Amino acid sequence: MDKVFRALADPSRRQLLDRLHADNGQTLGALCERLAMTRQAVTKHLVLLEDANLVATVRRGREKLHYLNPVPIHEIAERWIGKFEHTRLAALSDLKKVLEDSDE
Amino acid sequence: MIDIAKFKPRIVYVTYIAASPERVWQALIDPAFTRQYFFGFAIDVEPRKGGAFRLLAADGSTHVSGEVTEWSPPNRLSVMWKAVGMKDFGDLPECLVTYDIAQTGEAVRLTMTEAHQWDAPDDLLSGGRAGWPAILSSLKSVLETGKPLSIKMEPPKEMLAALERLKAR
Question: What is the ipTM of this complex?
Answer without folding.
Answer: 0.75
